[in-house]
């Protein structure tokens, strides 16, 4: 039912308005407030160490002065307390006086208090800290007002379609505020350090803190006033929002007049409708009324509880930042730096965290919130945070070992990313959309204040809670706590509670503000109120799979794979089409993605030895440096983890938004991250490896998306007769990707070897690795962006697949038009047939239903288990490559080669393996799959792999003798060949053919992710398992030996055959 307020022309015009210049103006004006908020709130963390050095120096101390715990808590936390108070006060005031009248007050308060904070003078440290805390409280008070006002103003200016993205964009300016604070602090610190070059503290404790350092923290704090001042004029020029003017101030004429100027259209005032709405008791209830409790009580509970729980977890993460920064070498020990250098180092660390984790998370939300919805993003965010928190907590004793710091940093970064691409943004967006206009700013202020209370608990409560149980090990000034491990478990439970509380919040995507709040509705029931009645049902759905009634259709129809889709002329034409040019175009466009995928995934194996030589060289060692076991596992394996995540996420997104819309996104991620991987610069090896791992995770994330999307697109473009070959040809481009990776590495290494002819390691350990070798691995990794970039334009030109457009988007006319252009024939739309098809309940079941389980449950179990078992065996074969390469003389001992020579030899070996075994296996499948069938090829492949694995395992001691190595190589090559001319291709093809169009990409993504999980087990689990029972390699624990491992792999292949 449409509300009468929705019928007000001015509000209808705002809801239906296209994205225009005034939207971006509003984002900038409101967003600059949040830029200032974030700058002012977070810049204090950049200078607290400096304040300790200046005002709390102790003569004769081995360490620089630091703020006492209670002073540090006050300096860092008083602004949070002020923010909480400001959110409540200005939220209420914004509903009483209007958004615009109050909006300038908050900005002036921020300007004045930013300047005053920097002018905190006194003759005694207590005087300076007290004055600073006083002004930072009032600074926080002004910042607090910006939360409800900015969110409310942006929501009331936006249209229905992109409102979530606009509000989130305002909030995302926080990321740039943090980034701007770090960059400015780096500039100021660098200028002062070059002008007043002081010695480190350990050299001269007094001179290490130059008197001029007192200006640094003051300038950093005071400059926060500038962006606020620059925005003040434009805030005062903004008209009051039409929703406040019309629905709260009851002045329809003023609302229409203001919005006519902005929208540049003529609008009627419709004062009579406003007057009618005021007479309805259903639109005059207050905050503390039974009617509010009935309509919005659970919603307010949902927004306050989720924001409270989120901020506990979000702000508690600061507990680990100092450990992380130290672990990756961004911040050396304080005594090795002077005071100003320490500011620069801390600022650089915060800038990098903001650049790599905070800012991307915010903008992922901006771009996807109006596609995925608030509920989905918040649920994903809390769920992922829960998982990562328990991953940190349960094996906590594992993470505290120094060699596992890199993995700890990755998990930490992902937790931070999913906080921002999740509840940290959605908790800000939703309260601005679901409450009535007269209470909107108040309710947003209450929700935000609840969040800030959680921030105080997270930042300070957990600082005490996380202290060691042993009083002797607790930090100075703190009582004993429950320990970090137990604190992390508590935080995991808090995130889990956040996941559950998310079900209290309604979805507002695509609905007008009046629909959500129910303003001026005759029956007094809002969309949000109606959704409130379903909350218990939503929670029940979360706990168990919803039960669907079975239709009365016969069993034969129930087991059809395409379910009446062939009745549409456009789909019938695609199925029967002869092989044409557009088929080959689609193969090349999709296949180049897989070419890039294979290049990017496998090129790292070409340069890991080089990375070890460059970054882990040990003086005097008889062998070149190698990556430590845990670092090698991270560098090689992190892309697999990203791929697994990407397969699930983009598989689901491809069914929700369409294949084409998501297809370009995966390619862009690959291009950006390929380049970024090669730009992993730092003075410290750990920092290089962490940066490399970070970008390779996101590279894998993009690669993962290509699996379900490429397979689904090719299957939906292909005809029935040659569909298997076409999908197989896309997958077979992996072979060329591996091949070209090897060839390009040969060219690059040969060029550098000719230019920089250096001796082998055994003759000169230092000169064997020239400085220029550092460019080799970077060029090889970055080249992966080239084929992807070349394909991007053609991907964007491809029309959406007809099966998605017709069967999922329900637009038969668009499907017919698109395919008529592609196939150059006339095709009827058949909209009537499509509508008949969609009316059948049997064609609308979801993934988590009994109907899906009955029709496709065993199919999904089959595709996931086969791919999982195949990838265990397939990736475990890398265990033996070094033995094979050595046996046939392709790779001599490392100390007999220079660094660049070693890259050349490894690349040559990989190229020959790809040329002789990988590529032929793929193309045998392409040539024969539509003749032999998927089942026969997969069964034959698994059977032959089982035979060869047992042939290697049972007489294993025979193969270890040098004279029998040739036989070993032949067996190894045949195993690899039958993997590719077998299940490695068919496990990719089949999931793209057997599931309904609306679930096809999702199911393929689940199957592929299961395979990638098997790859992780095969590549790393079996690497540890195959270690010798008595003497393991350095960095590894003892295993069950290679022979027993081969027997297990034979059993794995046998299970795959079954």
Automatic annotation (TrEMBL):
Chief location: membrane
Annotated InterPro entries: MFS_dom, MFS_sugar_transport-like, MFS_trans_sf, Phos_permease
UniProt-recorded Gene Ontology molecular function terms: phosphate transmembrane transporter activity; symporter activity
Subcellular location per the Swiss-Prot or TrEMBL entry: Membrane
Topology in the lipid bilayer: Multi-pass membrane protein
Keyword Transmembrane helix: yes
Record domain Major facilitator superfamily (MFS) profile: where: 26-510, 586-1058
A cellular-component GO term for this protein: membrane
NCBIfam families named in the record: 2A0109 (TIGR00887)
Official protein name in the record: Major facilitator superfamily (MFS) profile domain-containing protein
Coiled-coil intervals: none
PROSITE patterns, sorted: MFS
CDD domains: MFS_PhT
The entry's keywords: Membrane, Phosphate transport, Symport, Transmembrane, Transmembrane helix, Transport
